[in-house]
Amino acid sequence: MKVLVTIKRAIDYNVHIRIADDGTGVIADGVKHSVNPFDEIALEQAIRWKEAGTVDEVIAVSIGDEACAEQLRTALAFGCDRVLRVAHDGPVAPLTAARAFAALVASEAPDIVLMGKQAIDDDNGQTGQMTAALLGWPQATFASAIELNDHSARVTREVDHGLETLEIDLPAVITTDLRLNEPRYLKLPNIMKAKKKPIEQSSLEALGVEADTSMRVTHTTAPAERKPGVMVESAEALVSELKDKGLL
Description:
Layout: E1 2-6, E2 9-11, E3 33-35, H1 37-51, E4 57-64, H2 69-78, E5 82-87, H3 94-108, E6 112-116, H4 127-135, E7 139-148, E8 152-159, E9 162-169, E10 172-176, H5 188-194, E11 200-203, H6 235-244
Helix pairs in contact: 2-5, 3-4
């Protein structure tokens, strides 16, 4: 069984985001980037399957410029067998990514395409669903537990009123949620070995994919600052404050 894991280079979740002065986006130059956290969970799950003997090969793919080689080497340090960079400069729209992944599926023939449910930079949460639609494959999104069988997968999803369990045929697209697992800490020897391993190269043009330009960011603003809290000395004063604000 073969698993194709998609990963995205994103600004590290610990970094304080700053808006560019012209409002065109956030400042990314000189800022720490990491593997998108949801994609890291997908990586961890695929490697766990490989260690258990359920999966034979794990391939990681990322779309972006040369900088995303750093994240692909992280995937190698996790234990991926191969990694591939699809060269593209500039933002990658969900539909562009989905078309590229669908094209890779045609050549790689994986049994599962495993993705994080969304990227923390744009929070679209659309690429997995679009990829499944383009492929005509079953999909299970926001997985918090996955049980693999020979020709099917049993996926548990967290929904508003409890847990939902789906059984889907393979090949399929599955997107991962936070509670699926906790990614491992990478060991230094694995990180050093990953630096010497090759990164396969492709491009949108080689895959026959044209970048989607129908969506663009027009303006970016920071959220409004919170007003400071008010300390009250009694329950009566609290009720009075709430009434003044129209909350009671």
